[in-house]
Amino acid sequence: MDFDPARPPTTPRDAAAVILVRPRANDGAPELLLARRPAKAAFMARAFVFPGGAREGDEDPRATAARELFEEAGVLLADAGPDVARDLRARAAAGAPLDELLAEAGLRLELDRLVPFAHWVTPSAERRRFSARFYVAALPPGQAAEIDGQELVEARWVTAQDALADADALHLPPPQLRTVWELREAATPADVLALASARAPRVAPLLPRYAPLPDGFALLLPWDPEYAALGTGEAAPLPPDHPQAVGPSRFVLEGEAWRHV
Known about the structure:
Order of helices and strands: EEEEHHHEEEHHHHEEEEE
Number of strands: 12
Largest sheet: 8 strands, mixed
Distance between the termini: 20 Å
Radius of gyration: 18 Å
Helix content: 10-25%
Structural class: alpha+beta
Strand content: 15-25%
Number of helices: 7
C-alpha cells in the first residue's frame, strides 16, 4: 500500500478474481475460499484475498479469472475429476500451455460458471493499480482447492459472517471486506449465486477516492456523501439508486486493519 494523493494517476492493469463458494459440510452454509498473500508480496502482503491475478495478453476477463483460479488454487472450471485437474496443473506449472493441455484432455474452460459480482478499480492515489473484475463460482463437484504456495500461501474456507468477525486477523483488503459484508446474509451457495446473477447486468466499476481526515485518511465509495467534495483523484460516480450504492460508504485504516464504516 503506497498512497500519495499528489501522484499522477497510472493506468490500472486489467485483472480478475474468483469468489469460490461451497456448502459447509455440517449445515450447507456457504463458505468462501480466502487465501493469504505472502509476507514479501509487493501488493497486499499478508492479506487474505480471493484467488486471482492480472490479465495476460488479450484474455477475456472470465478467462483470466478461470486461469488464475486454476494456477493458484488448483480448481479447474471444467468437467474434470480431481486427478485430471491435479495432473493438468502440474504440467501447466512445468510450462505447458493450458489451452493445449485442455484440448489434449478433451476439455474446455466453462466460463459460464463465472457470474459477475463486482468490478473494483484501485484508487488513483495508489502506485500499483488494477481494474479487477470479481466473479462468483461454485466449487466443481469432486474438486478441492490446493493453494500453490507461491502466489498464495495459506487457504481458509470461511462463511461471510465468520470472515467479517475475523476481518482483523485476516487482514481483509477493502474489496474482500465489502464482499463478505454483502454476502453476510446468504444462507446457501445457491443464495450467493442468485445474488450475483441478480446484480450481474448492472455491475459498475467501484473506484474509491482518497480523502484526508484529521487523524488519517479514508477511501470513499461512490455513494459516500463526501465522495465529490472531500475525495481526491480520479472518480467514477454512481447514481444514488444504483443497486450497489447501499450500506457503509467508506473504508478507514486502524492500525493494520481496514474498517468498513
